[in-house]
């Protein structure tokens, strides 16, 4: 009995993977707004009713693809941090930024799914939040290690932003000073803005050497969050 269950479980994993792969192909060809369970089933030689046993709706399939994309991007950021383990905090920051950019350029349709235009009629559920936070957690880890190693140069905040900075710090980085968290959130948004401009073509006829431009900008963001001059922990 257990052998039969194992065979069924493996078959379900394989079919689920095939459905996702075909859906990603359709994303690349047609865009997320035109993703269709019937079209996916047709390309896989399945009847629609069979596919619905794996994904009861288009939105559930989209959610699975979004979580996979966020997880894959998060894994790329985490791997970049591991490779840069011997670098200074600023060097680790830049390495993670470059790892994210490399992933986005290599998988633009998946990147568009999570950071492009919203899909009409679809609202991402809370189930996507843990995967979506992985990149942010990597950046927080760099800041936390730098802070524990001797502090970071957080800038003084204007009075009207201080309560908001305290709230953000309490929500997701209570061990960091509020001014550091505010700078980190701003840098995180600017980082994805840089990647968006490159992935979606806004740098065409503006920036030619985009790799060097991005690296310099990533160093600038490291300075903005207070990592300049912070040495790596021994």
From TrEMBL:
Record's keyword terms, sorted: DNA-binding, Transcription, Transcription regulation
InterPro entries, alphabetized: Homeodomain-like_sf, HTH-type_TetR-like_transc_reg, HTH_TetR, MT1864/Rv1816-like_C, Tet_transcr_reg_TetR-rel_C_sf
Pfam families in the record: TetR_C_33, TetR_N
Positions of the DNA-binding region: 36-55
Domain HTH tetR-type positions: 13-73
Gene3D superfamilies, alphabetized: Tetracycline Repressor, domain 2
Protein name in the entry: TetR/AcrR family transcriptional regulator
Organism: Streptomyces akebiae
């Amino acid at each position: 009995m257990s052998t039969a269950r194992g065979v069924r479980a493996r078959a379900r994993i394989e079919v689920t993977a095939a459905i996702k792969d075909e859906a990603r192909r359709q994303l690349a060809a047609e865009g997320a707004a035109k993703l269709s369970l019937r079209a996916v089933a047709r390309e896989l030689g399945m009847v629609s009713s069979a596919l619905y046993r794996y994904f009861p709706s288009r939105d559930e399939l989209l959610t699975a693809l979004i979580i996979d994309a966020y997880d894959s991007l998060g894994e790329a950021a985490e791997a970049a941090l591991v490779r840069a383990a011997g670098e200074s905090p600023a060097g680790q920051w830049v390495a993670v930024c470059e790892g994210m950019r490399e992933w986005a350029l290599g998988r633009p349709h998946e990147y568009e799914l999570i950071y492009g235009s919203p899909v009409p009629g679809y609202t991402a559920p809370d189930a996507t939040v843990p995967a979506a936070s992985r990149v942010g957690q990597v950046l927080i880890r760099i800041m936390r290690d730098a802070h524990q190693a001797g502090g970071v140069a957080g800038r003084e905040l204007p009075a009207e932003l201080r309560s908001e900075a305290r709230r953000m710090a309490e929500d997701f980085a209570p061990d960091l000073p509020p001014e550091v968290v505010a700078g980190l959130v701003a840098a995180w948004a600017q980082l994805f803005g840089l990647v968006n401009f490159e992935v979606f073509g806004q740098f065409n006829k503006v920036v030619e050497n985009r790799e060097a431009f991005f690296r310099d900008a990533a160093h600038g963001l490291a300075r903005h969050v207070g990592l300049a001059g912070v040495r790596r922990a021994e």
